[in-house]
Amino acid sequence: AGWDQGPAYDPGLAERLLEQAGWIDRDGDGVRDLAGGEARFKLVVNGGGDVSGLEQGVFVQDQLRRVGVAVEVNPTQFAVAQDAQREGEFDAILSSVDNTPDGILVKWLGEPDPGGVDRWSGKPSPFGYRSPEAARLLRALLWEGDPEVQDSLYSQVNEIFRRDMPVTFLFPSVYRNVVHRRIRGVRQGWALLQFPEELWIEKEP
């Protein structure tokens, strides 16, 4: 809850905004340019394993090509991609962001530190971004148990990210638990595996 839909898919608007900013294909090679530089960058993706980002990278490459931006997809080993993200050594990178306060901090700051919310107002993330207000809201979320208050806090954080645009959210990952109807006590997400002692089997009628 709280993560609103992003901007509508509108290639025409994208082209107009690029042109207004001075990015025009002056030499007819299909790539926009400005002041001698081309709209071209490398996109680091995880190139192996069960969480390969190569397909997503190719999709992004195709979509941006249609508006005159050239993307070189760079499949990289997972550990190397993680190091690049942690050090901020990339033009662009495809990564995942957990929709939880500690998950956001772990992935964006590159450090497994659930209490590291304070780093948002001190050390910037590898993306060069920091927001004391987002830090305050995320800190509150770590301890808030009321779903309605959580939803309000997430909406406020989302509005900050919408305004600042530290990253672009491409699509959400949704997980579903599929269990027999007699299994009771099931929570959402990974809790099915984390809290098996809370499950019970309902007797047949």
Order of helices and strands: HEEEHEHEHHHEHE
Biggest sheet strand order reads 4-3-5
- Our estimate of the beta-strand percent is 5-15%
Number of strands: 7
Question: Roughly how many Å apart are the termini?
Answer: 36 Å
Q: What would the principal axes of the Cα set say about the shape?
A: elongated
Amount of helix: 25-40%
Determine Rg (CA atoms, Å): 21 Å
- Please, how many helices? 7
The average pLDDT score comes to 76
| Structural class label | alpha/beta
Unreliably modeled segments: 105-116, 118-122
Major β-sheet annotation: 3 strands, parallel
What does the model show?
This protein is of the alpha/beta class and 205 residues long. 37% of the residues lie in helices and 12% in strands. It has helices at residues 11-20, 54-65, 78-87, 101-109, 132-143, 147-164, 191-194; strands at 33-34, 37-38, 40-46, 70-76, 92-93, 183-184, 200-201. The strands form three sheets. It has a three-stranded parallel sheet with strand order 4-3-5. It has a two-stranded antiparallel ribbon with strand order 1-2. Strands 6-7 form a two-stranded antiparallel sheet. Helix 5 (132-143) runs antiparallel to helix 6. The protein is elongated. The two termini are 36 Å apart. The model is unreliable at 105-116 and 118-122 (pLDDT under 50).
